[in-house]
Amino acid sequence: MTGITSSSLYPGFVVTTALFRNYHRLFQKQIPLFQTCITKGFVSEELVGEQVAEVITAREYNQSRAY
Description:
Layout: H1 25-39, H2 45-57
C-alpha cells in the first residue's frame, strides 16, 4: 500500500455557472429548462458543492476505486 488515495467526481453538466457566459443567451436559458423538464438531469451549483464535499469527507470514498 502506498497510502495515496485518488478520487474523481463528474458533477454533471452544470449550465448555471459563468463557464457558459460565451454561449448565446437563448442557449443559456433553454438548456436548464431542457435538463429540468426533459432529461431530469439538472444539477445546481449548490448540489455540485455538496457532492464535492461528500467525496472529500465521507469515509466510503477514502479508498481507491470507489464509485
